[in-house]
Description:
The chain has 398 residues and is α/β, with parallel strands linked by helices.
Amino acid sequence: MRLLHTSDWHLGQNFMGQSRQEEHKAFLNWLLETLKKEKINALLVAGDIFDTGTPPNYALELYYNFLKELSSIKSLKTTIITAGNHDSIATLKAPKQLLEILNIKIITSGDKDEDPIISIYNDNKELEAIVCAVPFLRDGVIREFSANTTSKQKEELINNGIKAYYQNCLKKATILKGTLDIPVIGMGHLTLLGGKNSDSQREIYIGGKLDIGGNYLGDMFDYVALGHLHRNQKIDLDHVQYSGSPIKLSFSEANDTKKVNIILFENSKAIVSKIDIPQTKKLIVLKGDEKSIIKQLEMITDKDSFIEVHLNDDNPALANQTIREYASQEDLIILAVKVIKTDESTSVKIQNAQSLDELSVQDVFQERLLQDNIEDIKLKEQLTLAFNQLYSKVQEDL
Length: 398
């Protein structure tokens, strides 16, 4: 059996005012061809299908057109999609029953109304694998605490809740498996210990950090398909893997190679290989003073590239203006200029706080919520949903 593991598409991302529509379209077309070429039997998508809970219409169209095309791939038996922290449960859940006709399984919350245990059968109707399709586990599923709960207690509740959820899934899968020598696969959308972040991820469990490592999940499952971290990487064990995002979602990922994971099973043993995803947009980071930056800009031939400048100059205001004017004349796209100041007494370079150039509208709203120190998690989620709906309405009216 051959699986393909991907995650963190973030369809609909608005990147410093720039659409990623064409990049995502190119990726999904490439993914369809790869599924055919590699004769994939099951597709696993581990969360964050969309960038916001209220994705733009073009992102929904890309998503549904992709799912429709999956039915034309003869080798593909099952597609399993789990929700991430960026996804709206309602958006993913709405077409769930219809998609099941196409052998597309959607797991959104993992609450008592959903069964995350999914069986994969071969052409002879024989059980070939079992998937514990665990989505991003929201607070209502894994923990309960009062206003008097301490930070340490919150962390303990989070970790114990997640571990208990996985243990319960494994128990059900083990009963279903019986004596068969078939793989049991775990999915998840979380940050494991030792995972390497990029600038495009934020802490997803308010009030606590996870102490769950790759060895913990790796001892439970024959392969672990993870989402949330945007860099392709293994955690502790070869069969515990983040696929990473298919396109570069922040400038901190400018030098990353984006990949999907292909998993071949020999009975229950996973053999993991990786395929590079072609990129249609370059993200370039330039560093130096005004003269150095101008010289580097002169060497850029792909004028569709997104550029971030780290400016270290004695007159940063004038240098910033000069650099932006030059880029405008040459039709280059500079999305952000970060001014690097030098503290002469310590010879330490200090980077200014993030500017609005670097933040999405949603990022600014989340920063505003942080300033208010709102403890009520449900209220924070409701405020975020209301804001996203309002922002989406404004965008539609433009």
